[in-house]
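Final report, closing paragraph on structural work. Over the funding period we assembled a curated collection of sequence-structure pairs, and we close with a single example.
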Amino acid sequence: MIILVSGIQAIPESYYEAAQIDGAGAFSRFVRITLPMLIPALSFCVITTTISALQVFDQIFVTTQGGPMNKTETVVTYIYDVGFRLAPF
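Its predicted structure, as stored:
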């Protein structure tokens, strides 16, 4: 959240003022100014979140192996189950 807030604060106010003078609405300013300027921050957040989600495999596998009725199963443990446990080789 801090990264996204700092990304929004880094967008120059003059862009919004120029768009408002040109007659752009709030949604148009968001889509054409805010989102393109936030792509680096958003991509960083998505990549780091994906990496941290993939790192949780060992803790879940050692403690519960997906838990009773798959309550603690994550995407990584599901991939492991389908790829290695249920594979017919």
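The mean pLDDT is 90. The CA atoms of residues 78 and 84 lie 10 Å apart. We thank the funder for supporting this effort.
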